[in-house]
């Protein structure tokens, strides 16, 4: 069973499972800079994308039951916002 959780009240950012992998997007145009990190099964956090403004698809394969946490850092209007998305495959 796949479970997706986001703590942002309006679903921003959000995660979709696609045929290509796990797609992380924003529901509207993102005017700030995004840095994305990934942690798998409690291992060390690794950067996936730095200083971008676009969506990303994480297409690395993991075994069923893996717990993946994405930490998104958004720099917007001189403020830093952090979000966490979790998926269990």
Describe the structure in your own words.
- The protein has 89 residues and is an all-beta fold.
- The chain contains no helices and 8 strands.
- The chain has a 5-stranded antiparallel beta sheet, with no helix packed on it. Strands 2-3-6 form a 3-stranded antiparallel beta sheet, with no helix packed on it.
- A hairpin with a 2-residue loop joins strand 7 (67-76) and strand 8.
- The protein is globular.
- The chain starts with a strand and ends with a strand.
- The mean pLDDT is 80.
Quick one: overall form? globular
Largest beta sheet: strand ordering: 1-8-7-4-5
Order of helices and strands: EEEEEEEE
Q: Which range does the strand content fall in?
A: over 45%
Spatial extent as radius of gyration: 13 Å
The major β-sheet equals: 5 strands, antiparallel
Count of individual helical segments: 0
Quote the distance from N terminus to C terminus: 6 Å
Task: Give a brief description.
With 89 residues, the chain is mainly β. Helix content is 0%, strand content 58%.
Key descriptive features of the protein:
8 strands, 89 residues, globular
């Amino acid at each position: 069973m796949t479970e997706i959780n986001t703590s942002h009240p309006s679903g921003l950012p959000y995660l979709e499972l696609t045929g290509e992998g796990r797609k992380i997007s924003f529901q509207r145009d993102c005017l700030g800079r995004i840095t994305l990190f990934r942690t798998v099964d409690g291992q060390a956090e690794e950067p996936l994308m730095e200083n971008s403004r676009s969506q990303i698809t994480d297409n690395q394969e993991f075994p069923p039951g893996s717990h993946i946490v994405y930490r998104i850092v958004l720099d917007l209007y001189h403020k830093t916002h952090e979000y966490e998305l979790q998926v269990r495959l």
